[in-house]
Structures are given as structure tokens and as C-alpha cells.
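fwd from M.: "can u put these together and see what the complex looks like"

so here's what she sent:
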Amino acid sequence: MTSETKPNSTAKPQGNTGALPSVARRKFLNGIAAAAGTGCLLNLGAFMVSRPASANPAQALRPPGALEESAFLSACVRCGLCARGCPYDTLKLAPAGGPVAPGTPMFTAREVPCEMCDDIPCIKACPTAALKHEMTDINEARMGLAVLSDHESCLNFLGLRCDVCYRVCPVIDKAITLENVHNQRSDRHAMLLPTVHSEHCTGCGKCEKSCVLPVAAIKVMPIKLAQGKLPAHYRKGWEEKEKHGSSLIGEQIQMPVRGMEEKAFGDSRLNEAGKVAPAKGALNSGWKP
Amino acid sequence: MLGQEAIATKGWFGAHRWLILRRLSQLTVLALFLSGPWFGVWLAKGNLASSVFLDVLPLTDPYLFIQSLAAGFIPASSALIGAAIVVVFYALIGGRVFCAWVCPVNVITDLAAWMRRQLGIKSGRVPDGNSRYWILGGSLLAAALSGSLIWEWVNPVSIVQRSLIFGLSGSLIVVFAVFAYDLLIASRGWCGHLCPMGAFYGLLGQTALWRVTAAKRSACNDCMDCFTVCPEPQVIRPALKKVGQESPLILDRDCTACGRCVDVCGKQVFNFTHRFDQRSDS
């Protein structure tokens, strides 16, 4: 049976050069409207779902060399080749339905931190350069920034010598230093406070991983979340002085502080009336329980 | 029942030949990616978004590639080469061959369609078949406006294949949503009407070489089995009934080259051939 012998009910109108019949036109326009509506609705839905990503989720610790987050979300095709390239299984792909864009690589420092491989295999594996191919020195990585967020439970802040975060830091004495501070509570000891320096911290997360507390007192966060910023017009007087070679406002008169005369530098205890100050350089500090 | 005559004349395997081959193809693709993490034999790394086969051949999904371009990022050369290889392959073989022979979502929607037939569900409302092009355009526009791959937050194809390959949980909800939509709301709703990835590959393979032909169309007894089983039934009529074309080839870009029409036809009207094979018995 050929089409000529068939009833003509489904055949299209011939010589369709003028205006469409109104029913057909309405059907056509309805179809377009429905399709356009569906298209807009679904994409709007996707847009709404993607909103949390712009809130810069704390879990979004990216592999070394990752572009800045908003550029990264345009460049990463979610293929997972970086995760396959990672010899330590550090990198995971974000699951669907979470705060991090699904399928993008991330790591959880407390579980598996970045081991900072010299050859950076994750960057080499990236096909799109969402991980910057020109980065060849792992020390330039800025995966995040460590923050000693809990001063109340950090053992070093309690005056103990834990130091573990400092010891494990791959950029020890640069990214984390121990700052010697007088212990006000005991009044005779030092506190060695782990202090992170953003200039050197790669955000590898080894400090967070090895914090001995049940919940880490030091945590790695995305830099945007962790770092503050001074106003652009601020100048540090001491730095300007050093740059200039001398004070910019002339030499200032140094007045003696009353009650602190004849004290060694750093000895902040006041002279008590009737008590003889210990001789300079003597071993007896004058401390009584 | 569907394909009864085909089973009678060709036997069960004969009447499911292309279906079985397709499932094998889909499984093989997944197996290539899973042999590494499961058995330590690395054949393909990455996933369908971008991969490296045997550590030399880069492959990148061109739809993701153009989304990235739309978002304002120019991917590195390895992704470009990979996308070019994939484009050439599907433009030659058949764009929506991806849908029927590679995409794991196809298994879900085929199952939904099969259950819909078995349960006799006729209800629901099917969206316009052109919706997919609007969604395709919308996804690129959304990427351009936001500078981010917005569609990849919800793209079931990406989410399902990645979850299978990387063993991620959380994709079950997506699988279930697509399945429920196809089963209860719209027959062949996702793959046949909405999926922008299918639309993209369809546009890509418009002039592809590998085609289904209704070469023995004079033998057709109007049993309608091919229309019932076809995921894109509108593609059959021009070739089978000579509506608007003389050629027996199914030339519509929506044809996924799944070969189910070849399987279920008891009169062996259909077969696979190449684009230039115009032989027909009527």
C-alpha cells in the first residue's frame, strides 16, 4: 500500500505558502510555548539548586592549582581524572545533593589530607586546566588556609606542649610557627602558640588531620572563607619606618613607665611597695605560690 | 504481545538481538571505567565527561565542552582534542548512538517504558518534543549568564554515569526521579522530550552514516509493534510510509539507532545500513 491510496486525513495541506490555518497555528504556538516554558523552568530549577555554591561552602577544599572558585566552576567538567591521578585517594568527587557542586573534586582534610606530591599528578591529569597546568611547585598551592579556630581547646593555648600541628606541617616554621608568649595564668611559663602564616600555608590539611583532639582545633577552610583583609589605605607604621630608614614623624621621646624602672625587658611585674626588687640577672624571680 | 511474530519467526534471541548488543555495549563502557578501581586494570580513567583511554587517547564530552565555553572558559588542548575526537566519531556513526549504546540512563528509561507497557499505563502528559532544544539552549544561556556549569547540578546523565563509575551515593534520587517521571507522567519523557544531551548529540549526528532502513517496507502489515517499541516513534513514518520522502532510510536526527524496530518486526522490514543505501522494495 502506498501513500496515494491511503485516506488523506494525516497528510499535510499542500501549497502552504499563505497563513497557517488558525487551529494549526494555535497548536504550533502552543507547542513552542510549552517547550520554551519547560526549558526555562528546568534551567531555573537548576539555577536554584546551584545557588548554595555561590555561598562558598566550607567543604569546598579544591585540589592544588585549582582556579579561583567561580572560575573553577566554569572550567571543571567533573570528570574525576584528578581524583584518579591522586596516589593517596585524597581527592573525592562531591556527591549530588550536597553543598559543593556535584562531581567537582574536593578533599576533607580531617579524613585524608593532601600529601603535596612533588610531581603534582592531579594537575597533570586535568584535561581542561581547571587545575592550572603552569603550577609546577607544590609549595605554591593554595588549596585553603589553616585556621586555629578553637583557642579554648587547643592544648598549646592551654599552656601545654602539644605542637603536633606545627611538627607535621610540610612547610614547618614558615606556614606554622610557634609564637612564644608569656603565660598569664601560671605567670612563670611560656605558651608556644601555633600561628598560621597565609603567605606560606598551602592548605594541605595535615595539621587538621593530625590534631590530637577528638575534634580538631585547627581547621583548613577555603581561603575566601578564612582570610580577612585590611583596608587598602592602611599602612603599618613600623614597616613604613623600616622602609624609610627612620621615623616619618621625627624621633619620639621615650618616657619611663612608672613602677617599671630598672626592669629587665619583658618583666612586667610591678615593684611592690616595701619589697626589694631582685637584683638584675638574679635567678630568684620573686614568684611565690 | 509486542514482537510476538518476530519471536515466532526469528526466535527469542533473534527478536532481541540488538537489545542484547546494546546492553552489552552499555555494560562494556562502564566495565572499561570500573576495571581500574575494582581490579587494578586501568583501561579508561575518568568518566564520560572526560576520560583517558589506555593512558593515551583523550575523550571529552562535547556538550560539557561547549557548556564550559559558554561559561567563559577556554579548556586546555587535551580537552579540545578529546572533544574533537568524540564529535567526529558521533558525527560519522550517529549522534544519538550515544543515547542508545552508551548512556546508562537509557537502561532506566527503557525499563520505565517497558513497565508502562506491561502495566498498561496510559495516563500522564507528555511535554513537547522540542522542549529538549529549549533546555539545551537554556543550559548554555544559564552557563553564559552565571559563568558556571549550572546544568551539571541537575544533569541526570552526568550524575548517573559518574555515580556508577566513582561509586557515589546520592544519585539514587535522580535515578528514581527519571524513572518515576517516565513511568507515571510522560511516556519516553526524559530521553525523548527533555534531555538536552540527547538533543545535542542529535544535532551533532544529523548527517551520520549508520542508519536504519525500512528496505522491505512493502512487507509491512501495520501491526504497529515498531511504533510501540520505538523511543522516538515519529522518526519511523517518513521512511516506512513514504511521508515527505521517498528514501527508505530513517533520516530523522532523533533516531537513536537502538535497533528495536529491527528486533520486533516479524516481517523483517527494517535493517541497519549506511546512509547511501537507497535500496527499497517499494
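replying to her w this: The radius of gyration of chain A is 33 Å.
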